[in-house]
Amino acid sequence: MFELGKTQTLMIIKELDFGVYLGETLDASMDDQVLLPKKQVPQDSKIGGVIEVFLYKDSRDRIIATTNRPRLCVGEVGKLKVSQVTKIGAFLDWGLEKDVLLPYREQTAKVKEGDEVLAAIYVDKSSRLAATMKVYRYLKCGGDYKKDDIVHGTVYEIREDMGAFVAVDDRFSALIPQRELYGEIRVGDVVTARVSSVKEDGKLDLSVREKAYLQIGKDAEKLVEIIRSFDGVLPFTDKASPEVIRRETGMSKNEFKRAVGNLLKNGKIIMKPDAIRLK
User: Fold this and answer.
1) Do the domain assignments include residue 71?
2) How many Å apart are CA 181 and CA 3, to the nearest integer?
3) What is the model's pLDDT at position 217?
4) Where are the alpha helices (DSSP H) in 52-184?
5) pLDDT score at 161
6) What residues of the chain score a pLDDT lower than 70?
7) Whole domain around residue 99: which residue ranges?
8) Are 223 and 250 in contact (CB under 8 A)?
9) CA 204 from chain center: how many Å?
10) End of a domain among 136, 157, 173?
């Protein structure tokens, strides 16, 4: 049985001017044969010999074999470059003559030519190979990660109600919860994060912030620079709404309050009823 999008070892059962037909057995029926074009046939091949090939569909939607190896097979996750954007989606270069389609519905962010996107290969409802940026179901759980490890991963999807989904080492499932998001993070960003917890199923929760006692000093330094950008007077205090604080500083209200407290303690700011001034 042919497995579209995977490599298989098949037997040469017929030789023609334009290539050879392959099957699982020498007596395979026509429906169980696949063409390997002549330019792909290894020298000294003969009937009964076996060849490892990758199976995909050509421009006429026929299953065809190739001895070339794509960068990804079905179910695998990796980064592919966008070669073209069209009305039906983006085409990704995966190492074969025919690029693979990334439909718009499978994109988690807008892509453009030249971008590298984290994607997985799947077989769609029309039995065609396609790519998706929704790689959650294709990622692994587990690994040797433990709490407080520093890891690197690619952001592949952002949901306001949950946070940023990350593929650690482009292989393992992880989430930066909404409460841990800090600064501006976009799909495609490669982030360095700390493992804040390892769940029972092996999935990881991450934080792009350090532990609170380490982060306060960094937030305080950042806040000083922000106040300077306002000519030394920040036009709101820790009484402002969380939305205003997040928009202007990239911090949560609690993070902002801790940074303000640190600066007050160290005598670097003066609190006014409706503003914060640098000393």
Assistant:
1) no
2) 41
3) 73
4) none
5) 87
6) 183, 210-215
7) 77-136
8) no
9) 15
10) 136
